[in-house]
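I am writing to request your help with a piece of structural work I have in hand. I am sending you one protein, given as its amino acid sequence and as whole-number tokens for its backbone shapes. Kindly check, if you would, that the fold set down in the tokens agrees with what the sequence suggests. You will find the record immediately after this paragraph:
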Amino acid sequence: MKESDSKSLPMDLLDKLWEKATKIEGLDPAVFRKDPCGAIISRTHFRQPAAMFAWDLDHIFPVSRGGDDREENLRPMHLLNIEAKGDSYPIYHSAVTMDLTSNKPFEQEYAVRKETQQLLAQIYPEASSK
């Protein structure tokens, strides 16, 4: 999302999107979660690029390819993983993942879940696999 969008983002929507991230056993889920690549993100580090657990909202189906800001197309993701993902869909790469209580560099290939791909193909015809 663009920086200007965050200022108008309703807190209840941000809370709802935070819930999409995976809980980490032994850590407070109100503060810490994992992104789709397994990287730790912190609720208090939203859009704080210098923070270790910085995150933002990833457009699962990229805006550059026809995606938009609807809730179904957004998920929390570590900033470094958003950068590594770029405009890739449905296959993308990570930059970091969890290493016990921190993050470590880790490049791996991931795929958007089939259920999510099917949902997004209904919303964005451009997202359907050909």
In short: The chain has one domain: 3-127.
